[in-house]
TrEMBL record:
InterPro entries: Fimb_usher (IPR000015), Fimbrial_membr_usher_CS (IPR018030), FimD_plug_dom (IPR042186), PapC-like_C (IPR025949), PapC-like_C_sf (IPR043142), PapC_N (IPR025885), PapC_N_sf (IPR037224). Residues 748-803 form the PapC-like C-terminal domain. NCBIfam families: PRK15284.1. One of its GO terms (molecular function) is fimbrial usher porin activity. Residues 1-28 form the signal peptide. GO terms for biological process: pilus assembly. Keywords: Cell outer membrane, Fimbrium biogenesis, Membrane, Signal, Transmembrane, Transmembrane beta strand, Transport. Residues 33-177 form the PapC N-terminal domain. This is Outer membrane usher protein. Belongs to the fimbrial export usher family. GO terms for cellular component: cell outer membrane.
Length: 844
């Protein structure tokens, strides 16, 4: 497709210098005069170069353009270009109040702004140093503004004024796992389990309903269970850097343990801070002896469920709002089950100087299966950055029979890390008796840059015998649990890189002791080393040692030693020795990547053979696992993770792993099969020209682009990239300018036998540029669709229309099309006269 920029580029500098004759007065006015004598044209009288006569000149009108401020994209906007009052032949971009609000100006700058065109357009001269330039060749409006005028920004992070609440719509995300197990003596057992989220977005509000269920079938018996975890709604409050939620929820606290309740909560949201000021997200580390299903839950609610291949696994994509103890269940291919708990603890409580972070909630505790229980409670906590190194924090929680008060201090030790110390005193009335006690906690975190190591978290908590946390109190009073709480809790996470030796070390440790129950202890140590052996590069060896002791259950301990050799471009062959519960096993695995979307693993051991296949599809992620045990036991498992998103502008099925999370719907101008790249594996637009990129980080600048390398030959992207920052749970919507159709040379004729002038532009029914007329009416057209219409413009107006053939030539458009351009009835209203009306409609 020939564009303005294409024609200019086609002329070498020596021709351009001869073509453009600039007089002194023309320089002042920005006009360029063309020396048409040097053009090799048969008809020099039929030329229209008015759109090129001024440097950067854009004809008056309204254009869809990608707005950039200091090279950062604000997304596509409709920009009006209007002749200034002091220059009727000129054209200036109209920056509307809505667009100015997205610039992120500092407080107080609004009072300095002046406006024109009935206060609909910003006078850019009211901000000294501001420059605005439009480029139709790339459909871009570039705004340059001194940084001193703007709010704080960071890499990939925008100020709240640029956050996008998205569009209204419906969503449904799911995670399903089906298993079929055949035993020689017990017959066939089938089960289907899943969890997901049903939701609706209305303005800034996100309404969500979480569900989980399971169906088990064995011989003629069948059991099923389905329940809704919670119904709730939430929204971001950028002015408070907080999140408001109502309905059924879990208490997210840095001072008190978590429990389920129905009520309202208002919490400072760390996700609304710049990335370097955000908090800590828990992770789960373990070892699967065979292909296994990992289920992570909290108080009965499933947080994560997925199939994993045999060997060590590390799950790091849990929501950072999760707090308290999590239950991990690893269901092995051979029917055995591992269970353990993981404590998700926060890093030391520190707050920026002069800033107050807070969390408040009120409601009634509830039980997932039994519904309401307990009296109405209320809680509140805060953290105040007193100075650059000290933070003070505290909080309280209470109901009719329970009261707890906490106070603490945090200290930034600079080169020695960060530490916090707090104490909580609780008083509880149970069955006429009063229990009063205290709990003390110490937390530490440090990254040792000079040693390339990090203590992600280290903590210690000691509780007196008569101290009960809120959840322990609820267990005793309403769920008939035993009186008696925890005594001490040690947690630590450490990792270290020895880069010169190619060695990395990871340690995760927790120890929970009780006053009246056996202790629970768990640790996992992982060591890995990468090295070369002669011509063989990137060999690796890893050792995993683990031990789990859950109260009165037998101690589970073992080791997993693996040696891996790379094969080919992406394959690897590994041999493993596994010792668990005094039982030894050996296995060999081969894993490889078929392409960007598919990878697989084949494994054989002294007791079984198995296979694992993972596929990243456009509509869902699918994992398939199969295995045979030596005792005639066989299993087949399949899991699918995906979702659907519906808006007034269209719908699409898509991959999804974060239930009810933030997503971006990309409209490829109605063109199907357009490859779209966001994070990870690219996807393709569906038959309606819609694609959804899920699992987008909230309050974080994200981008989506057309994968130009994989673009079909009959599709062209005139706008291939978009950027935006979405609030939590939003459904973003962006359109990328894509032209679909064939390309061919054509000759345009008017009814009187003449041709459109040199430089006239051709557009399709979507107002996309599809060509520029050359000598004698010749034009190279793109986006040719059978039976479609195109218009030809010159002299600041649409002049005639083209009707493309309903049947295109069978020779693949190798021949030139002869097209007649039918005149369009002239509109007596000049373009500049309708712009105020356009602006009025836009503002409304």
């Amino acid at each position: 497709m020939l564009k303005t920029s294409t024609i200019k580029a086609a002329w070498p500098p020596c021709v351009m210098s001869g073509l453009m004759v600039v007089a002194g007065s023309a320089i002042a006015a920005g006009d360029i005069q063309f020396n048409t004598d040097i053009l090799d044209l048969n008809d020099r009288s039929n030329i229209d170069l008015s759109q090129f006569s001024r440097s950067g000149f854009i004809l008056p009108g309204v254009y869809p353009m990608n707005v950039q401020i200091n090279a950062q994209s604000l997304g596509e906007q409709r920009i009006a270009f209007i002749p200034p009052e002091d220059d009727p032949k000129g054209s200036e971009a109209c920056l509307s109040p809505e667009l100015v609000a997205l610039l992120g100006l500092k407080e107080g700058k609004d009072a300095e702004l002046t406006w024109w065109q009935n206060n609909e357009c910003l006078n850019i001269r009211s901000l000294p140093g501001m420059e605005v330039t439009g480029d139709l060749s790339t459909s871009t409006l570039r705004i340059s503004l001194p940084q001193a005028y703007l709010q704080y920004t960071a890499q990939n992070w925008d100020p709240p004024s640029r956050w996008d609440e998205g569009v209204s719509g419906l969503l449904f995300d799911y995670n399903l796992t089906g298993q079929s197990i055949r035993n020689k003596n017990d017959g066939v057992k089938n089960n289907l389990s899943g969890n997901g989220t049903l939701g609706a977005n209305v303005g800034a509000w996100r309404v969500r309903a979480d569900w989980q269920g399971r169906v088990d079938a064995e011989d003629t018996s069948r059991t099923q269970h389905m329940e809704w975890n919670r119904f709730y709604a939430y929204r971001a409050l950028p002015s408070l850097q907080a999140r408001l939620s109502v309905g059924e929820n879990y208490l997210y606290s840095d001072l008190f343990d978590s429990f389920r309740f129905t009520g309202v909560a208002l919490n400072s949201d760390d996700n609304q801070l710049p990335p370097n000021l955000r908090g800590y997200a828990p992770e789960v580390v373990g070892v699967a002896r065979t292909n296994a299903k990992v289920v992570i839950s909290q108080q009965g609610r499933v947080l994560y469920e997925a199939l994993v291949a045999a060997g060590p696994f590390r799950i790091q994509d849990l929501n950072d709002a999760v707090s308290g103890s999590m239950d991990v269940r690893v269901e092995e291919q051979d029917g055995s089950v591992q269970t353990f708990k993981v404590e998700s603890a926060s890093i030391p409580y520190l707050t920026r100087p002069g800033t107050v972070r807070f969390k408040v909630a009120a409601g009634r505790p509830t039980n997932l299966q039994e519904g309401g229980a307990g009296s109405v409670f209320s809680t509140g906590e805060f953290s105040w950055g007193v100075t650059n190194g000290w933070s003070l924090f505290g909080g309280a929680i209470t109901d009719n029979n329970y009261r707890a008060l906490s106070i603490g201090v945090g200290r930034d030790l600079m080169a020695f890390g960060a530490v916090s110390l707090d104490t909580t005193r609780a008083s509880t009335t149970l069955y006429g008796d009063t229990y009063t006690g205290a709990s003390y906690r110490l937390s530490y975190s440090k990254r040792f840059e000079e040693y390339d190591s990090q203590v992600s978290f280290a903590g210690y908590r000691f509780s007196q015998e008569n101290y009960l946390s809120m959840s322990e109190y609820l267990d005793v009073r309403h769920y008939e649990g035993d009186v008696g709480g925890s005594k001490s809790l040690y947690t630590a996470t450490f990792n270290k890189q020895f880069r010169d030796a190619g060695v990395s070390v990871y340690l995760d440790y927790s120890n929970q002791s009780y006053w009246d129950r056996p202790d629970s202890e768990r640790w996992n140590l992982s060591l890995s080393r990468y090295f070369d052996a002669g011509p063989v590069k990137n060999l690796s060896m890893s050792l995993n040692l683990f031990q789990t002791q859950q109260r009165q259950e037998p101690t589970s301990k073992g080791m997993f030693l693996t040696f891996s050799v790379p094969l080919g471009r992406s394959g690897s062959l590994s041999s493993s020795f596994n010792r668990t519960q005094n039982t030894n096993s050996y296995s060999t695995r081969y894993s490889d990547r078929i392409n960007e979307r598919n990878n697989y693993q084949l494994a054989a051991s002294d007791t079984s053979v198995s296979g694992f296949l993972s596929h990243a599809g456009d509509r869902a992620d699918v994992d398939l696992s199969a295995g045979i045990e030596k005792d005639s036991r066989s299993s087949l498992s399949v899991s699918a993770r995906g979702g659907g998103t519906l808006t007034k502008d269209g719908a699409a099925l898509h991959r999804s792993s974060s239930m009810g999370g933030t997503r971006l719907m990309v409209d490829t101008s109605g063109v199907a099969d357009v490859p779209i790249r966001g994070y990870g594996t690219p996807t393709r637009s569906n038959g309606f020209g819609k694609a959804v990129i899920s699992d987008i980080s909230s309050f974080y600048r994200t981008s989506a682009s057309v994968d130009l390398e994989s673009l079909p030959s009959n599709i062209e992207a005139t706008q291939s990239v978009t950027e935006l920052t979405l609030t939590e749970g939003a459904i973003g919507y962006r359109t990328l300018a894509v032209i679909s159709g064939e390309k061919a040379m054509a000759v345009l004729h008017l009814p009187d036998g003449s041709v459109p002038p040199f430089g006239a532009s051709v557009k399709n029914d979507k107002q996309q540029d599809t060509g520029i007329v050359n000598d004698e009416g010749s034009v190279y057209l793109s986006g040719i669709q059978p039976g479609s219409q195109m218009t030809v413009s010159w002299g600041s107006a649409e002049r005639c229309s083209l009707s493309l053939p309903k049947e295109l030539p069978a020779d693949g458009l190798a021949s030139t099309l002869n097209l007649q351009c039918q005149p369009i009835k002239a509109d007596s209203t000049p373009a500049s006269a309708v712009l105020p009306d356009v602006l009025e409609k836009k503002a409304s």
